[in-house]
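Marked as duplicate of an earlier ticket. Keeping the data here for the record.
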Amino acid sequence: MTQTTTSVLGEMIDQETTGGRFMGSGELDTGLRLIVESLRAHAAEITKVRPPKPELAEEYARLMARAGEARGRALLYPYIGSGLGNGALVELADGSVKWDMICGIGVHFFGHSDPALIRETVLGSVSDTVMHGNLQSGFEPYELSELLLAEAAKGSRLRHCFVAAAGALVNENALKLCYQKSGGAPRVLAFKDCFMGRTVTMSQIGDAAGNRIGIPLSTLVDYMPFYDAAAAARMGKERHIRMIADHLRGYIERYPKQHACFVFELVQGEGGFNTAPREFFVELMTICKEHGIAVWDDEIQAFGRTTSMFAYDGLGLGEFVDVVTVGKMTQACATLFTEAYNPGPGLLSATFTGSGAACRAGCHILRRLADGGYYGEGGKIAQHAAAFKAQVEALVARRPAWFPAVGAGTLADAPRDLCGGWGGMMRFTPFGGAKDRITRALKACLEEGVILFSCGHGPYHIRLLPPLGVMKLEDWPRVFECVERGLARVAD
């Protein structure tokens, strides 16, 4: 029985069950080898950006129209994949090839058609059912939980894990844990410009008015200012943090014992890839602890992408966190929590935890992250962050007119605006962060061969969540050739 096809069950069970023998069979191993070999051969044909094939234009337009009709609204980008790619490159159904620098908004950390990941996905898909659930399940969701908890235990008190199929669902579960532990305290603390997902409740907590139009507001949310580096520079960091801490105390005094939790994005995602120093979070989390308010760390987008697997570890905040949510690159999502937040029966359940393919892929990804040299000051993610920054700086030097002032000062005087974020959460700000020009730039860059996205709410930024699990450092100049061509079309 080979290591790659062995079931996740114990060795004795593998040997004594028909399912275990099937997972270790030579026929399955041969089939997997043939699939992966064919995948490699076809993916190897995808080596560079290329334009759409004219002979596919009409059929592609029909596919786009069908997609728009089915969902009731045209697609934001004219993107329908062909089903194949090669690392950071992806082929669309119109025959074009593009650099994928957004990766499903952070889902595809190992890019497109990764052979090892495809192998695990196929293995996960040959189980007797498509989906695992809380009533009937294979061991895959629990193995995913064990791997997450083993990493979490290195720097926190997190002890239990509950898997679900989407980021918004694990955030809902986190909120329920906090509500129950608080005895039903009705209020939630969150940062201005946060994003939590698109369920009814998460749309109310997330600070984007457009996401809750027409939704009856039943969730009580108190918004806190996020750390502002420019304000801290003007008034001094300590004073700035003290003012925000006083804001938190004001809410607590106004609504005593009414807050179930404070949800922290250690890197604001949709809000603009905004970051803050450790002492900012320590001050606020300490106040929460003093008043029995749960510290909930939402790492749906940040998990795995900073210079540590968990962002809270990178900031040394593990002692404070009570509940943590992860997702996107893990394929199946999860809520992790301490023993104190272990709920009573009935609070957490669902028909689905996730598919066998997603759970098995998630386990593979976690092992690869842990053993792949991605983290730390000299890790692969830090190297890519430096390479990205160098490309942005070179672009600004060549095209300074594209980078006018954003707020106070110029981009050249404010490196945080030049290329902000943390690790593999990257953003930069051309055209003064004007929404209309950023939107046009994204579409122009797509046509020039690179897929990007935006973040922020004024200024708006160009956002990258690249596939750093497979991307090469020498790819960055090729990516920015496409970026520069796209921006040039808007600048002109």
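See parent ticket for discussion. DSSP finds 18 helices and 17 strands in the chain.
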